[in-house]
Design brief:
By secondary structure, this protein is an alpha+beta fold. It folds into 2 domains: 6-68, Winged helix-like DNA-binding domain superfamily/Winged helix DNA-binding domain (Arc Repressor Mutant, subunit A, Orthogonal Bundle); 73-217, Umud Fragment, subunit A. It is 20% helix and 30% strand. It has helices at 6-22, 28-35, 40-52, 106-111; strands at residues 56-58, 66-68, 73-74, 92-98, 115-120, 130-134, 150-155, 164-169, 172-181, 184-188, 197-200, 209-217. The two termini are 24 Å apart. Mean pLDDT is 76; it is low at 72-89 and 107-111.
Length: 221
């Protein structure tokens, strides 16, 4: 990727921080206020530069569709503790890493997690009720989420259009972009070789969203 200017780096960091802290990107006005830019055209100049250099994608020209191409990667500490996502020392949080998550079994899976990982609370936006899932497959590689990565997920049953969610399809959890449309809910992969999973509105249940992805953990061998 091309190198960013200092101002472009500041805009990207502000967008990433907003997504991690609130679950959705900032508006053009919020970016402008943060950066001291009075016009939306000035903000859009920075966003277009970030898109051109491969650091940002937009479904359209709306700020709520902003998506950094690489989610912030969290640093991991030692693995031990009670696996309930409580603060341990300072800002460290113990996050349960779950195995297979089936319909109606999320809480049970969190209580009997396969493993745990400690991360600094700031890396997950200070979120509560966070769990981790290991990614199996390459459906989200264009979003910087690779096979074998662990995503940190804030437990919730609602999501904003364009967010990366963990959703239930049948009895299996899947990581996809969330796009509610008139014909149903589209779970969109970040892989051009794959197509959307479309769930008709009549078949979609409010409990099918398990949470929103707020961070990423990757092992380096």
């Amino acid at each position: 990727m091309q190198k960013l200017t200092q101002r472009q780096e500041m805009v990207l960091q502000f967008i990433q921080a907003s997504i991690m802290e609130r679950g959705y990107p900032p508006t053009l006005r919020e970016i402008g206020n943060h950066m001291g830019i009075r016009s939306t055209n000035g903000v859009n100049d920075h966003l277009r530069a970030l898109e051109r250099k491969g650091y940002l994608t937009r479904e359209d020209m709306k700020s709520r569709a902003l998506r950094p191409t690489n989610p912030p990667v969290a640093a991991a500490g030692q693995r031990h503790g009670d696996a309930h996502g409580d603060t341990l020392t300072g800002n460290l949080v113990e996050i349960p890493i779950l195995g297979r998550v089936a319909a109606g079994a999320l809480q049970e899976a969190m209580e009997s997690s396969e493993d745990t990982v400690q991360v600094d609370r700031v890396l997950i936006g200070g979120s509560q009720n966070v769990f981790g899932l290991r990614i199996n497959g390459e459906s989200m590689i264009d979003a910087g989420i690779n096979n074998g990565d662990y995503v940190f997920v804030r437990k919730q049953i609602e999501a904003t259009r364009g967010e990366i969610v963990i959703a239930l399809v049948g009895d299996e959890a899947t990581c996809k972009y969330y796009f509610p449309e008139t014909d149903g809910v589209h779970l969109r992969p970040a892989n051009r070789a794959m197509t959307d999973i479309v769930i008709p509105r009549g078949d979609w249940r409010s409990t099918q969203i398990l949470g929103v992805v707020v961070g990423l953990y990757r092992k380096f061998n």
